[in-house]
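#lab-general

N.A. 3:47 PM
ok so I finally got the sequence cleaned up, no stray characters, all 188 residues accounted for. can someone with queue access submit it? mine expired

B.Y. 3:52 PM
send it over

N.A. 3:53 PM
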Amino acid sequence: MALLVALSYNCKEVKKEAQEASEDVEAAAEEMKEEMVEVETIKFKMEPKSDSKVTGDVTFTEEDGEVRMTAVLTGLTPGEHAIHLHDKADCSSDDGKSTGGHWNPTNTPHGKWGATEGYHKGDIGNFTADADGNATVEFATDEWCIGCDDETKNIVGKGVIVHQGVDDFTSQPSGAAGARVSCTGIIQ
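B.Y. 4:20 PM
back already:
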């Protein structure tokens, strides 16, 4: 009889430990699910405009509320150039002007990114091409999103334009950056 009581007690202990282990596994799985960060990446080819040879790729990655843009460009003239987001993802015209003006959903003056006087959400800024005409542009902000419902942040449907010249950050409405030498549309 004592053996039967001991076995019964041991079975209850094993069941209890198994239940606790199962609950621990479920809790750990739920915690991992909460910690998983959704990452979205979209990539596009830049196409030459205005009789240039400027090509490359631009990648947008959204992670943890921040969008990172990386543009790898070739065929530029050595020196400084401007890059902006424009209103439309339409690169159909030979001069790139089918993209419209700078993306400016908050109706602020053109300026350098982060300026207290104001700046467009498309005012990325200037970068430098090396002696061989190559450049990599990296930019990150929490003021953009990929495909969200906030039209003041959503970059989908906008165009990326590389300009022949530099953005002076003061001329209105676009910074007098010159010809549009490369273009792509941000389409999901």
